[in-house]
């Protein structure tokens, strides 16, 4: 028996006839499987040069079979334990960004830095710099997919409206406008950082950091809130990367882009809403 809370009322659902298209909500199984695959892909990206295949396979199984479903259970749905205690998620900030970012942080710390990452190595080995063209293509693909992923993070209830993952009252137009506002805020900040630091990667990754930053706010915030919170995303990502370098933790990608903005954005949403 599924239980849904709509407009502060708890409704018991025994059959799709009690709630039209209730059986369609099973599509979220595929949605969470996709989130798990994305989380494992981020973990792989964070330590791809420092880990052997077998440990990675084992960790991927643990993340997919235990950690990701557990976080989804705790954070998703109107009756999930953390939602009932005030935690709010929408665009997968907790099961994807924060979970993968935390895992990569610990993994990068335990695996140690790549040769030449912080100090010159006697062999002359050093990390290869990012390919800006590939980064740009990847960012473009993510931006194309974002509207679909964002709208897929909510529920369409026939005759009632659009609701967030925890059945917060929202709307398709509201979510799309908030997403675009967050993208614009992060893009502007990313361009400013790129100009200031003479680093084109900051401009490319600015829109990604802002969406992660505003991920928990997209269904309940307004455009100005998402614009300002999104604009902070690249700054938080840059600050997270700086802290990692000072701590000699070698991860220039996943933790700065996922864990830092994801965690700070979730806390900001708590204060704003």
UniProtKB/TrEMBL annotation:
GO cellular component: plasma membrane
Pfam families tied to this protein: Ammonium_transp
GO BP terms in the entry: ammonium homeostasis
Subcellular location as annotated: Membrane
Chief location of this protein within or outside the cell: membrane
Entry keyword Transmembrane: yes
Top-level division of the source organism's lineage: Bacteria
Membrane topology classification: Multi-pass membrane protein
Domain annotation Ammonium transporter AmtB-like: ranges: 24-272
Keywords of the record: Membrane, Transmembrane, Transmembrane helix
A GO term for molecular function: ammonium channel activity
Keyword Transmembrane part of the UniProt annotation: yes
InterPro entries: Ammonium/urea_transptr, NH4_transpt_AmtB-like_dom
Name this polypeptide is given: Ammonium transporter
Originating organism: Amycolatopsis echigonensis
Lineage: Bacteria, Bacillati, Actinomycetota, Actinomycetes, Pseudonocardiales
